[in-house]
Every structure is written in C-alpha cells, then in structure tokens.
Amino acid sequence: MKWVGRCGECQAWGSVSEVGAPTTRTAAVASAISRPVPIGEVDVTKATAHPTGVSEFDRVLGGGLVAGGVVLVAGEPGIGKSTLLLDVAARAARGGSPVLYVSGEESAAQVRARAERIEAMAAQLYLASETDLGTVLGQIEQVQPAVVVIDSVQTLASAQVEGAAGNVSQVREVASALISVAKRLGIATILVGHVTKDGSIAGPRILEHLVDVVVAFEGERHSRLRLVRAVKNRFGPTDEVGCFDLSDAGIVGLADPSGLFLSSRAGSVPGTCITVTLEGRRPLIAEVQALVATSTLPSPRRATHGVDASRVAMITAVLDKRAGAPLRNNDVYISTVGGATLREPAADLAVALAMASAILDVPVDPQTIAIGEVGLAGEIRPVQALERRLAEAARLAFATALVPAGTRGSVHIPAGLRVLEVPDIRTAVGHVARSPTSDIAAVTEIGAAMDRG
To answer: How many CB atoms neighbour CB 247 within 10 A?
Structure first.
C-alpha cells in the first residue's frame, strides 16, 4: 500500500482513497441546540388533535389531525382516497387556514372538476400538480399551509436521488423530506400511498415506521360502502373503523351504517339470518344468506362471498355430522348483504342457521339475531364483546338473541331483548324449526326429499 497523488483516470490530485478505509465516527457536539427537559414541563398542546369536519375520519384518527403529524392513507386505485382527502382539505381550508393539495397523478384542472362535483371548493385551498420533490418543498415554504395533502408519495421524485419515481430510494427520500418539513414547521401532512396486488403498502417498510398514522382504505368496487381502518396510530386507538358511502356526489360518513347490510324485502325468506359483527370496536348488524340446492356434480359446490370459505366448509361439516343436516350431496352458496365482510368466528352461528333455514325451508324470525362461534364438537362457544353486540341489537329493536350458554350470568341483558341460550348446534337448529327441541328428524326428512328430487 502506498500513497497515490494523482488519479490515473481523471488526472485529479488527492482524489484517490483506500477502499474499506475506516471512517470517523460521529462525535457529540460541544453545545447541543436542544436541551432535554423534565417530562412534566413538556407542552402537550402540540399533540392536540384538531377535527377535520369529517366525523368518521376523525374517529379513526383519534379526534382529528395533529400539527406536525404525518398520516399515510393507503388503498386500491379508484376506491375513493382522493375524493375523501379533497373533502377533508376543503373543510380545513374553510376554517381559515391555508391548505396545499399536491397531485402528482392529475392536473389541477382535474382536481378542481372533482372539487366542484363534490362541493369541496374553498378560497384557502391551493392546488398544485407537481412531481418534483424540490418544487413541492418550495411551494410548502411559500404557502405556509396548516395542512398538506400529497397524492401520492409514489409519484414524487427527487433530482438528487437516482432512479424513477416510486422505487425504494425515491420513496424513502420523499417521505423523509416531507416528514422533516412537517415536524419542523408543525404542518399536518397526509400522504397517499399505493398498494401492491396483495393489498400491502407499496415501497419500503420503513415508510410505515416513519409516519405517525397508517390508515387503510377498504371496499369493493361494486359496493358503495367504504371502510377506513387505522393500522397504526400514535395519537389514538388502532381498533376504530370509519364507514363511508361513496356515490357520484362524493363520499359521506355513515354514523349508523347497519342498514346497508340488511336486505330490503317485505317478508321473511328462508335461508337468511342476522348477526352482529365487530369492525374494530364498532358493532354492525349484518345479514347472512344461504342457498342449498341439489347438486348434479360428483363434488358439490361450496361458493362463498363475504365470509371465509374455510370456516363455511367447517360449519357445513359440523351441521352434517352433529345435526344430521343433508349437506354432503348438495351445493351450498353463502353470501352477505351489502358487501359486508365477516372475518370473525362470532358469525358462525348465523351462517349455520341460515343453512339450516334453507334446508328446512322455514324462515328465521326477522327479529332474531344469532351470535356465537361453532366448534367442531357442535358446541356454541362464547365470543368477545357480547354485551356491546346485544346493546346494538336492542338499539335497533331486535326482539330475540340466540347466544352461547352461560351468557345471562356474565353480561348485562338490555331491556326489551329476549336472550335464548343455545349450548350446541342441535338446539340452535331446533329454534329455526320453531320447536322446543331440535327436530333433527325433520331436517333429515327434508334432506331425503331433496335427494329424491
């Protein structure tokens, strides 16, 4: 190893350095700019949430936007992210504070057209169609907004970083720069993020670690219902869910969305049952529909929509084995109403009773709800937050609730709600048949008639 004064390639002096040479470690500054203070003297007003005017969005955020807080909103294309955030930006601007809305995907004219359609016009709302990070930072310094919306973080790029917009290096640099400005100037910042095919947020995982709040926008294209769910929240709970109705006129929060999950028919129809599901901490009424038909295939079909297919297969086997229901040679179709998605086991009993109702051709009382998890032995197991579910059923004037055994002594029963305990699936099927005990023989007889037909 020897000293080389001039580079053999570019002929520059002093530009050659040893590869792998040790670098100097970062040393402590002699005089720190910011000094640590006792925790009791920290100003908590800086972490106060300010409502956005959209109550369902505020519910998920923990009360509203926090000055200097950064929120990442992720969701599939066309699900309504830009529509919701444009409404939030307009409401904040009507409060007198300047708001900057940066769109890297649409022109300013397109954003204004949407704002006119959803009535989100405001004098203090500033629009910018820009994809250069340096320009956006300059616009933030110029406008000095209270709220900034970036739509989206994957469309911005820095000229100092190699690579196209959206790659890992660019997303990391863009997010770091915007978060730094938000913290320094006390600006509430909302970043829109793209998602991959499997629904996860595109880009480096560090993006979710850097921001303060991560919000997931969920929904199906053929349904008007949209759910906003907090995945991470440094300012509030992570088990809150906001419900929205997306239409041509914009997106509207739903304080009581249970009506969307119930069918609007005049009379009772066999093959339906109502349950109470939990979305976060929020109880929602949902309806399960079942259709059982004679199969012409060697392997009967099991089609599901809105419910877990594996749980439906398990419940079908339990009904067949423990209650004598003739399902092994019949096609079974299970669906929910209004695009609801039932992820929790508490809906097992409703699914089972909907199938039993379809087999017996006897409708379940429309004023009855069913709550409980079905076990492999046919037992009905307790579920969490049962008291909250019963209170929601009583509020919506349901008369009867089928619940797991042991409920009466463990939860408060709302006034006006009759609670019937069902220890196993046989007893539950008996209630569908409107018999004091489970009429399994009737179920089998109906099944034999279906097989002959």
So the answer is: 12
